[in-house]
Design brief:
Elements (H helix, E strand, L loop, with lengths): L6 H4 L12 H13 L5 E6 L5 H13 L13 H8 L5 E5 L6 H11 L9 E6 L6 H12 L5 E7 L7 H4 L3 E5 L4 H14 L3 E2 L1 H11 L3 H14 L2 E2 L1 H8 L4 H12 L3 H13 L4 H20 L11 H13 L2 H19 L4 H13 L7 H16 L42 E7 L5 E7 L14 H7 L1 E2 L3 H7 L5 H6 L4 E5 L2 E5 L4 H5 L3 H15 L4 E4 L13 H11 L8
Parallel strand pairs: 1-4, 1-5, 2-3, 3-4, 6-7, 12-13
Antiparallel strand pairs: 8-9, 10-11, 11-12
Helix pairs in contact: 3-4, 5-6, 8-9, 9-10, 9-11, 10-11, 12-13, 12-15, 12-17, 13-17, 14-15, 14-16, 16-17, 16-18, 20-23
Length: 571
């Protein structure tokens, strides 16, 4: 029985063309090889799993290949096969994490003097070079600066900032980027095809997102998924990685938005009982709030937020409800909890504390918490919600409506003053925080008869109307109240003129929906949250200039002839 080879080793790139997502490196190296402009020392930097060691091995094959093809190793000659199998001793690979002393570097300096046995160059690959001691770096300097013509050094590191400037100045540097999730997903599907396995697009993209730009991590996770099932979907990936469903993340966020700490902790308890890792769950929540932040701040966030369309729609609705201060505050609380988990605290307790803080921000007196609460108050004021009174109104007499005393007109003489009218008991409507009208009987002063208001001049209102620039934002904000009415207002235009907001729509559907008082209130709330004003709603019907009647001169002449009794022959 042959030994199983893990996927990241089995599908390690053999040529530069196989390297995923690093064209800035592979194209440059191929051009140097074709032109014969080889450097004596290269430095490959970047995060883990991005192809540094793979490119170093490909470069070592390319410089020694007997039949190079367009800057690529042929992978068929004895040199290429020998390097892949580890049989060619002209390529020396050293791990500086375990060979970091000065004696190890002195050993390399001695080997440099020997000419290659079978290839053209002796290639020394030093991985994790930042782990070398200061003395080892000093011993490497002279050899690195002026090596023999048959020697090439390739240094690889994930922490380039730890390298001395003297080493950096002696190398040609190549930076390896995090691999784009879409490119990595294509590589994952290619590997699945080679392994005769099935994988959905959503699962491949989810693996790529979890791997965070590292192909090696992605293929390791794919190995675990294939151990569970030969047909990989998103649920299989979540089981293999120990992830929570996106629905749980959204439910936790919704519970925190609605200040329902009981529901948030209950969901957390269920996930804990399902053996979900609390530190990973905290990290997922941070990333989810990051998605909300991008939706809130970036003009076109869909390309940056990796989610399914349904998940993105739900996240978009939540982002419209939250302010940016709320989102940043939540990320800060969760990040603090995550850091405490790394210091050895109980992961479950730390995450419970964080969720309770998010559900009850009054428990936190930090500056970020205060800013988030101020932001919520500002939004409430825009919506017209009054602040809570110091004491509740217990008697109708305390709920007073102040009105100025009616004074007689100076034009009326003292003898002809109208007799005072007895006060009548009427009803005043007060609006509470929950928008529930409460009728309270009050005593009104005498009512002086006023002249009827002049009719509204709609022509002048229409003429003064100007487009409301923030109308698309209003329509987007309307989704939190009603997705149906928001979709009906897509493509419409709004004009403001004084206290009027006039809506121009191609169909009558939006206006039929607005006949419902609840939907009309929802639109007013959405407009007020964005603009801070409360408008009178109406349809936009621009006044059309009277067109002069255009008559054909021949028609007018024929009409005059008929009036004179002369017959006109018409074709």
């Amino acid at each position: 029985m042959s030994t199983y080879q893990v996927l990241y080793r089995k599908y390690r790139p053999k040529t530069f063309s196989d390297v995923v997502g690093q064209p800035q490196v592979t194209i440059t190296l191929k051009n140097e090889l074709k032109a014969g402009r080889l450097n004596h020392a290269y430095l490959f930097t970047g995060t883990r799993g991005t192809g540094k060691t793979s490119c170093a091995k490909i470069l070592s094959k390319a410089v020694n290949c007997l039949n190079p093809i367009d800057g690529e190793p042929c992978c068929e000659c004895e040199i290429c096969k020998g390097i892949d199998n580890g049989e060619i001793f002209d390529v020396v690979e050293m791990d500086a994490a375990s060979n970091r002393r000065i004696d190890d570097i002195r050993d390399i300096s001695e080997k440099v003097t020997f000419t290659p046995q079978r290839g053209k160059y002796r290639v020394f690959i030093i991985d994790e070079v930042h782990m070398l001691t200061t003395e080892a770096f000093n011993a490497l300097l002279k050899t690195l600066e002026e090596p023999p013509s048959h020697v090439i050094f390739i240094l690889a590191t994930t922490e380039v900032h730890k390298l001395p400037a003297t080493i950096l100045s002696r190398c040609q540097r190549f930076d390896f980027h995090r691999i784009n999730p879409q490119d990595m997903a294509q590589r994952i599907k290619y590997v699945c095809d080679c392994e005769k396995a099935e994988i959905t697009d959503e699962a491949a993209l989810l693996i790529a997102v979890i791997a965070d730009g590292a192909v090696r991590d992605a293929l390791s996770l794919l190995d675990r998924c294939l151990a569970l099932s030969a047909s990989v979907d998103a649920e299989t990936v979540r089981k293999a990685a120990g992830l929570a469903q996106k629905d749980y993340l959204m439910d936790i966020a919704s519970a925190c938005v609605n200040k329902n700490s009981e529901k948030a902790v209950s969901i957390l308890n269920k996930l804990y009982n399902d053996s979900k890792d609390m530190a990973r769950l905290c990290d997922e929540l941070i990333n989810y709030y990051r998605s909300l932040m991008l939706i809130k701040t970036v003009r076109n966030p869909r390309e940056l937020v990796v989610m399914s369309d349904d998940e993105f729609d739900t996240a978009f609705d939540q982002a419209q409800i939250l302010s940016l201060a709320d989102i940043v505050y939540a990320m800060d609380i969760l990040q603090t909890a995550y850091e405490r988990m790394a210091r050895g605290s109980d992961n479950r307790i730390e995450l419970e504390i964080a969720l309770v803080k998010l559900s009850a921000p009054q428990l936190d007196a930090s500056i970020d918490s205060l800013l988030a609460r101020i932001s919520a108050l500002e939004k409430a004021v825009k919506c017209g919600i009054p602040a809570a009174p110091a004491s509740s109104v217990s008697a109708p007499a305390k709920a007073t409506t102040v009105a100025k005393e009616a004074k007689p007109s100076p034009a009326v003489s003292e003898e002809k003053k109208p007799e005072p009218v007895k006060a009548e008991e009427t009803k005043t409507t007060l609006v509470t925080k929950e928008e529930a009208p409460v009728e309270v009987p009050t005593q009104h002063p005498p009512v002086v008869q006023q002249k009827p208001k002049a009719p509204v001049d709609m022509e002048s209102i229409m003429a003064a109307a100007k487009p409301l620039i923030s109308w698309p934002e209003v329509v987007a904000n309307l989704k939190q109240y009603s997705r149906i009415i928001a979709s009906s207002f897509e493509g419409t235009t709004a004009y403001e003129s004084g206290d009027y907001l006039l809506i121009d729509a191609k169909s009558d559907i939006p206006f039929k929906l607005l006949q419902n008082s609840a939907q009309r209130d929802n639109l007013r709330k959405s407009v007020q949250e964005i603009t801070g004003k409360r408008y009178i709603l109406g349809p936009y019907k621009p006044t059309e200039a009277k067109k002069e009647e255009e008559t054909d001169p021949l028609d007018a002449f024929a009409s005059d002839m008929k009036k004179s009794g002369i017959d006109v022959i018409e074709e």
